[in-house]
Amino acid sequence: MIHALTLAALLQDPAEPAPIQPMSPLGWVFLLGSVGFVVILTVWCFYRVLTAPPEDHVVKPPDSLGG
Question: What confidence category does residue 41 fall into, taking pLDDT thresholds of 50, 70 and 90?
Fold first, then answer.
């Protein structure tokens, strides 16, 4: 069954765009929090990879773990 709002949207004239609504404060908080988390995680991962110890300092795993 097609919802009434979906049907109304399908029947709307495509030449007449829907009015733009501003983002709510909670939307901004969610957006900035999500983007901030991804940026911080990316920076942390790059830091971990680029500051890895040289190969001669890497500890070999025990033989029981396949080392």
Answer: very high
- 3: buried, middle or exposed (CB in 10 Å: 19+, 13-18, 0-12)? exposed
Measured between alpha carbons, how far is 44 from 36 in angstroms, rounded to an integer? 12
4 has a pLDDT exceeding 70? no
* pTM for this prediction: 0.55
Q: How far is CA 65 from the centre of its chain?
A: 34
Alpha carbon distance 26, 46 (integer Å): 30
Strands (E) located in the chain: none
CA dihedral 42, 43, 44, 48 (to 10 degrees): 100
